[in-house]
Amino acid sequence: MSVPAAYLGVILIWATTPLAIQWSGDGPGFLFGVAARMAIGTVLALGFARLMGLGVWRREALATYGVVGLGIYGAMLFTYWAAQQIPSGWISVVFGLTPIATGALALLWLPGQGLTRLRLSGALIGVAGLGVIFGGGAALDERAVLGIGAVALATLIHSVSAIWTKRLGSGLHPLSVVAGGLAVSTPLFLITWGLFDGAWPVDLPQRALGSILYLGVIGSVIGFSLFYYVLGRVDATRVALITLVTPVAALVLGHVLNGEPLDPRILAGAALILAGLALFEFGDRLLGRRRRDVADKGVL
């Protein structure tokens, strides 16, 4: 597969995931949607890991699987619930803060991590963007506020899980990590569905069924594989651009395919979040390049 095709595939899958999450809960309920998706993803991930000869069930890997599994469970549970409260595009915008949240947590938990002034400025701009979205007050009803808060909490859980996994430093194959994490989280989703719903849907709309299958097969397995394929062949700067493009694409898709409004306040907040993320990811690189150019001109 060509790298550009894989790169575009990652953007499309990540951009369509929030909308598919929302659709998967229309009819059967969000708990059934997430439990079914994770069950499908677990079977496929374990199957692929077996075909590739990866040893998933190793004692030294259990701690990593536990951290990843709990991260998947917490982040996805709040995300799926939030998808029933707010437009799907908003989910991608708030989740765009993940690199900033991860960077901030790395300062506390990973030795040798620093936070430059540009990165701090980017983080503050991103948080200000979230404040603009929340600051609508009267314009946002209680459901919207709770939904945005749930996605922000999901982002934090995801970031904590990522940093904790890095601290463990297991050196496992990425597919083994996902397969093991899904094997831990899926029983939790099934138990949660059984406790709070437990009713098998009598009528499963085609759109909901298609979304569950899409998320289980494309979102959980193929999307993950494409991402690591790209990560191994493209420099980190270009990979980081995915987090800038995806929220914009998700907002447009939600508007076109689901009739979601593009509120000016949401657009302004999204612009600030993306600007902060861009400064956080690329500010130091651009400044370093500019200094080198100035130094080269001085030598000449």
Structural write-up:
The protein is mainly alpha-helical and about 300 residues long. It has one domain (about 5-290). Helix content is about 80%, strand content about 0%. The protein contains 12 helices and no strands. The protein has helices at about 5-25, 30-50, 60-80, 90-95, 100-110, 115-135, 140-170, 175-195, 205-230, 235-240, 240-260, 265-300. Helix 1 (about 5-25) crosses helix 4 and helix 2 (about 30-50) runs antiparallel to helix 8. The chain is globular, with a radius of gyration of 20 Å. The N and C termini lie far apart (about 45 Å).
What are the main properties of this structure?
300 residues
Which helices and strands occur, and which strands form pairs?
Blueprint: H1 3-24, H2 30-51, H3 62-82, H4 88-95, H5 98-109, H6 117-134, H7 142-168, H8 174-196, H9 206-231, H10 236-240, H11 242-258, H12 264-299
Helix content: over 70%
Number of strands: 0
Computed CA radius of gyration, to the nearest angstrom: 20 Å
pLDDT < 50 stretches: none
Distance between the termini: 44 Å
N-to-C order of helices and strands: HHHHHHHHHHHH
Please state the structural category. mainly alpha
Percent of residues in β-strands? under 5%
SS field, number of helical segments: 12
Q: Sheet bearing the most strands, described?
A: none
Shape: globular
Mean pLDDT: 84
Count of domain modules: 1
